[in-house]
Predict the structure.
Amino acid sequence: MDAAANFEELTVGIENTQTASTGPAKAKSGRILFDRDSRDTVGEPFVEDARMTCRDVNVYYGDKQAIKDVSLDIGRNEVIAMIGPSGCGKSTFLRCLNRMNDTIDTCRVTGQITLDGIDVYGKDIDVVPLRAQVGMVFQKPNPFPKSIYDNVAYGPRIHGLAQNRAELDDIVETSLRKAGLWEEVKDRMDQPGTGLSGGQQQRLCIARTIAVSPEVILMDEPCSALDPIATAIIEDLIDELKQQYSIAIVTHSMQQASRVSQRTAYFHLGDLIEVGDTAQIFTTPRHQLTQDYITGRFG
Amino acid sequence: MIRKSILLATATFFMATAGSAYAASARDNISIVGSSTVYPFATVVAEQFGKTTSFKTPKIESTGSGGGFKLFCAGVGVEHPDITNASRAMKKSEYDKCQANGVKEIVEVKIGYDGIVVANSKKASPLKLTRKDIFLALAKNVPDPSGAEKLVPNPYKTWKDVNNSLPAAKIEVLGPPPTSGTRDAFVELVMEEAAKGFPFIKAMDKNDFKAAAHTVREDGPYVEAGENDNLIVQKLNANPDALGIFGFSFLDQNTDTIQGSFVDGVQPTFEAIADGSYPVSRPLFFYVKKAHVGVIPGIQEYLTEFTSEKTWGEDGYLSEKGLIPMPDQERQQYQSDVKALKPLMMK
Amino acid sequence: MNNATANGLPPGRRAIDIVNAGLSKRYRRERRFRLYGISAILASLLFLSFLFGSIISKGYTAFQQTFIRLDIFFDPAILSQESLTTANYPGVVKQSLRQMFPEVTTRQDKRMLYGMVSNDAAFQVRKLVLDSPEMIGQTLPIWVAADDDIDMLMKGHFDLDVPESERRINDVQLAWVDRLQQENRVEKRFNRTFFTAGDSREPEQAGILGAVMGSFYTLLVTLLLSFPIGIASAVYLEEFAPKNRWTDLIEVNINNLAAVPSIVFGLLGLAVFLNFFGLPRSAPLVGGLVLTLMTLPTIIIASRASLQSVPPSIREAALGIGASKMQMVTHHVLPLALPGILTGTIIGMARALGESAPLLMIGMVAFIVDIPGGLTDSATVLPVQIFLWADSPERAFVERTSAATIVLLAFLIVMNATAVILRKKFERRW
């Protein structure tokens, strides 16, 4: 408990966190440092040169608090996985990052979230350009009931990214190529996006997201509705995409988290319990709750 | 919100201008309202008028006599009707309302008579009724059958109970509802007249008399069959024991399936109503706004068409539709009054 | 056995036995329920077929009309070139009838004879002469409409067993009709007048075109107003309005309005459009405005339901790539909700088409012969025409009432079928 109290005092600056993150040295010996009752974040929530920073974020749905004092950074060109049992708040947290929660009337967010140093909840921030910068891929593939071309072109069109048809065609092709879908659909661009297979639909949604050149891509369990083969293709794609984008992915599959992410954050009932290097989280968790989860004791 | 209120304001403005533009422009067809009893006759005249002249066919609304007077007396101007039809004479209160609203000069035109018939199916034999029989069969409260001078709730179930010479059939009469002009006339011409035959009822004060004479029983034998007289005719065909009360024109058009009952010894025929021997008949009218004559095109010509012999005469086309013409002298009187647009005086 | 005990069942009883025992009861219940359902459907079908059967059996004859062929001599003595518009055309018709039945001499009989053909015959002759004056002097066979009583006779609507004095057609007329038939001068033809004429007090000249045009103009106004206003209201309430007590109040009121008796809208229309704005009586413009008030709640409720059924995933997809709320609605939600909105609109319009009560108050229940040519012309509508004919004493209007009802039903069936087809075609399962 001492250590926990100590940690709470220290979560002020990055260098302090690094002090705290000296903990794993002991953890590597296999000893769990923090027991079940502790709700303070363990590990390394902060990184140098962060793309997005979150500080003391609380989310309430009416009177119910869904996220409690979460502080976390998303680094450049990294994939950060968010795991945890159902209802732990990982999706809620993800949706705060591009203010998708704004659409829910009763939802209230406090704390600070920045993108490249700018407060995304600031008074004069418009959600439209924010969501263009922080794109999102959803749990269930949700292509628009339009043609494949229009699905990808929709974002660039509303944001006016292309000067003419040729430029738009370029953007569509590039996006589809990046999403690894070009070869499969290049001959049937005018067919409805909803006619594709589940995995193709999800890649179409990814293409649609990257067509507006975001900086961060949020993925909310993108493979939960897909079969293992489609999942594998998407996972390869995520690996490619991290060259260019920061990616935050919520997943129920620990295998997936360990395959695609560099860092992993474990949420539990609204608390961010532990953040750290993915390999370390899955081999030597420092928090008893993380240990319970990854060993399959609940969740 | 701002955009919405602008929209609302525009809509209001549009309608106001459309309205005033319409009010400013002259109407080019005659607008007629009023009684549903006169409607079948007025429409025939209007159609004939529209076909044989260069004027537009008048528009005729069937609003009932009271409703017609209400619209007619609302004022002078194109948005108000020019003529109202009525199955009764204009009341003093309606005349006063007209005066108050600036409708000063009104021309009254009596067009003829309409008989109200009590009819049954041809499948049964015709009934020989008196007005007293009808009153006793249909009033809510009737004189005590024992002879005492007081009213008791109507005890009669069959026509034989009412009058020994009538068949022992159940009393079942289909008639118009209280909103109908036919009902008003029926109550006035049959029930009231019969009630006057009982000295003690006649001696009652005005309100009590009205209650005694005008109240129709509500315990089943009288069935309110709605304003649609055709429906009554169809129901009579289906039920030979039932009687129906409606205008003569409906009997006239269906003489192959229904027959009129004798009332006080007279059967409702064209001739019997025309010569006044059939007791249940009423005059029909229309009223013209003199201020509109010459403003709305065609009113004068419409009046001429209506009051010509080929229209309302003995062999006129209105008689084919069931209107009973006035006696020659009365016709000529009204014809000349109409020609002179002699206004109605009511003191 | 061990398993059963482990499941908490008393020893000696197997779950499968209990299930099997209850199985037949379950199936019986299901069969009963299906039976109820089928009998309910059959009952409604029975009523419907009874309604259709009675209307169609009464009304189909109105689509035919009896015509009589007259040999009309365009007598130069009557038709002098100077006053062709006002010449005595009825005289021409009467003359030809007299020539056909030279034995008719008494005044009474002549009147009956002239009454055999519609008085429209004279106008028919007038039109022919005005179109081609060179006919004058010739004798031509012309088919003219028979009077409604003759028409009814030919269609077998008169009972000829009753004594002559009580028939509308007496024995002399019957003899004439027989003779005309022997000479092949009587023919039943398609009743074009019924579809091309306005109202008339003579059944053989009465048509529904005036009422159809009145309904058309009225519904045009209703559609042009209620569709955009309905969609705008629905979109605002569903997508933009904050959820608070005020919007709840508005929602309750809209639902209430949908259930308000339609006559109330007529009263409102009378007070607002006629008395306050001074719009003309009996005009399709006002009728359309009143029916708009009546239709709006239906459209708004249907549109909102349709908007609600667009899945949130599509909204999220649009918002997720940075569409504004307006773009999300106009680009995605509204197009997807449109089939449902159209269905609701068509159903609302069908209801408006069948409505007569509110129009009573604003003067559209009227005898109008001229076919309306615009929004402010006096007009009536189909259901009102049916109502007026149903109340006319002439026997021939009975079949015309049913025929007009058939036409109205046909329109309603087409509209409702369109709604169903739209729904089927564009329906999306998410």
